[in-house]
Amino acid sequence: MSEILGLITARGGSKGLPGKNIKVLGGKPLIAWTVLAALESQSFDRVVVSTEDTVIAEIGKEWGAEAPFLRPEELAQDSSPHILSSEHALKWLKEHQGYLPEWVMLLQPTSPFRSASDIRASIKLVKSESVEAVVSVCEVKHHPF
Fold first, then answer.
1. What interhelical angle do 30-41 and 116-128 show, nearest 10?
2. Which residue from 23, 75, 116, 127 lies 20 to 30 Å from 13 (Cα-Cα)?
3. pLDDT tens-place string over residues 21-77
4. Any long-range contacts for 127-134 (C-beta under 8 Å, 24+ apart)?
C-alpha cells in the first residue's frame, strides 16, 4: 500500500467565527468530525493536524490525530496560501521524522460531513484513473452573495 498522509489544516485565527475549528457541532468539536472520518476510513498511515494553535493541536490529539509540530504564525493568516502550510508540514515531517508520503490528502475541518467512504472513494479514484488530484465539491443551492 502507498504511504498516504491525511493532513488536517486548521488555523486558530478565524475572524468570521472565532474558534470555529473547536466549536461544538453535534456534540463534538468541529475538527473531531474530520479526524474521526480520516481514522474510520483506514486509508492513511498517518493523520496529522497542522495548526499554529495549541488548543486545536490538543483537541486533534484527543480525538486520535497526531500534532507533532505547530506551524509558524505567518502560515496561519487570512491571506496565507494553503499550499504553504501543506509544504511546511511535509518539510517538517521529512526533516524531523524522515517521513515523506507518496500521497497527501488535504482534509479541512470546515467540511465536517465528509465521510470515511468519501475519503476511500477519492483515493480509489485517484489511483484507478491515474489522475493527479481529486477535489470534492458540491452544488450550492443558494448563492452566498
1. 50
2. 116
3. 999 999 999 999 999 999 999 999 999 999 999 999 999 999 999 999 999 999 988
4. 127/2
Residue 1: pLDDT over 60: no
User: Could you give the count of Cα atoms lying within 13 Å of 11 in the half-sphere of its Cβ?
Assistant: 20
Q: What is the distance between the alpha carbons of residues 48 and 2, in angstroms, rounded to a whole number?
A: 17
39/2: higher pLDDT: 39
What's the pLDDT score for residue 25?
A: 95
E-only strand ranges, the chain: 4-9, 24-25, 28-29, 46-50, 103-107
The three-state secondary structure class of 8 is strand
Residue 79 buriedness (CB in 10 A; 0-12 / 13-18 / 19+): exposed
Name the residue with cell 486545536: 56
